[in-house]
Each structure stands twice: as structure tokens, then as C-alpha cells.
Amino acid sequence: MNSDPQFDTSLPGTPLTEMEPVSHPFRTALIDILQTLVLAALLYFGIDAVFARVKVLNISMQPTFFEGDVLLVNKLAYKLGAMETGDVVIFHNPNDLSEDYIKRLIGKPGDRVEVAAGVVYVNGIPLDEPYIAEKPMYEGSWQVPDDAIFVLGDNRNQSSDSHSWGFVPLEDVVGKALIVYWPPKAITIITHPQIDDSGR
Fold first, then answer.
1. 60 an active-site residue?
2. Rounded to an integer, what is the distance from CA 199 to the centroid of its chain?
3. Would you tell me how many other CB atoms lie within 10 Å of the CB of residue 37?
4. Residues in CB range of 80: below 8 A, 6 or more apart
5. Which one of the listed residues 55, 79, 103, 159 is annotated catalytic?
6. What is the pLDDT of residue 9?
7. What average pLDDT does the structure give for the chain?
């Protein structure tokens, strides 16, 4: 008798068909669900490491942004690139780090900022600012430290910002605003005029 396990003794020389694996639809579905959840979590945390979402809660940036607008923020913008005068930046409120503010970047580290007769000067150069609500009714001059920035709201006379409470430490900057994506009627890419502030 042929004892080779690969042959049926009743039909000598005839190969046995291999056993089909037992199907476990519940286990297969569970594995698919777990894989999908893991992928979704990786995508969520990966995106969250690069982007933030910020909702406008007050009038300090009108007419550029209004209450209820939701902005997408690039958290790596200043880790991979340089700051530019005119950027819209998000940062932790220096007086309450649990709260985030949205303002216009006016003075970069080392800049000299002056406000006089309704005009903002950076390093002696007047800024062209078509985005502001009205000319500032205050005056002053500030030397920006090397580890901080100077910010102002576009609604100059209705904004709590660097002209009243000082500079923003670089370590408290969250990122650069890229786009308004909510509500749909307000969707827009955030841009600003090219500002030559190199006249030191």
C-alpha cells in the first residue's frame, strides 16, 4: 500500500486536491476595519502635525476676516521658510498661552517699526496697506527684539496687538494663515502686497 500522503490509496497515482482554507468573513471584515482605522489615524495625526484650523472670534482683523471665518494654518511655514512682512500669523496670546490670536506680521526680528500720522513705517519705509479698515489713530515707535515679532490687527483702531501689549516671542508663533475655507462664500487664498522692508 502506498503510504505517500500526497496520493489517495483508492486511486493510485492520483494527486489529492489541496484543502481550501476555511473562510472567516467576520475576521476578514474586522481586519479591514482595523486597517482602515489605523490608516485614518495616521492621516489625521500627520495632517494635524502640519496644519491647524483657527476660527475668527472678534473684529480685530476686519475687513480681511470676519467673525465665524475658519482659517487653515500652515504650522511648518516658518520652520521651512522665512517670515515676510504682511503675513497673517497665528500665535499664542502672550498674556494667555491657551488662547490663540490672528494678526498681521508688521515687524520681523530686528526691525524698527514706527507709526506716525496714520502711516506704518518699517525700517523707515512706509507700508502700502490696502487691507486695513482705517489708518491708525495712535503713534509710537518700537525696536523689535531678535527673538520676537511685532503684529497689528487690520482693524487698527479696534485691535489689541503689539502697539498696546508688546512683542510676540518667536516660540509662541503657531504658523502662517493660508486660506479661509469656511463659510463657503468667504473661501479665499490669503495673500498680501509684496512689501519692501529692506531699507535698514
1. yes
2. 30
3. 10
4. none
5. 103
6. 46
7. 83
Per the document, the length of the chain is 200
Q: What's the helix, strand, coil split of the chain in %, to 5?
A: 20, 30, 45
- Single pTM value for the model: 0.74
Considering the candidates 10, 60, 98, 141, report the single residue annotated as catalytic: 60
Superfamily of domain 49-189: Umud Fragment, subunit A (2.10.109.10)
d(CA 86, CA 123): 14
CB atoms near residue 16 (< 10 Å): 10
**Extended strands (E) in 37-164:** 51-55, 70-74, 88-93, 96-107, 112-116, 119-122, 125-126, 140-143, 148-152
* Beta carbons of 155 and 111 less than 8 angstroms apart: no
Task: List the beta bridge partners of residue 102.
Answer: 90
Alpha-helix residue ranges (DSSP H) falling in the chain? 25-50, 77-80, 162-165
Could you give the residue ranges of the DSSP H alpha helices within 69-196? 77-80, 162-165
Give 34-77 pLDDT, tens digit per residue. 766 666 555 555 555 677 888 999 999 999 999 999 999 999 99
89 pairs with which residues across the strands?
103, 176
Q: Is 103 marked active-site?
A: yes
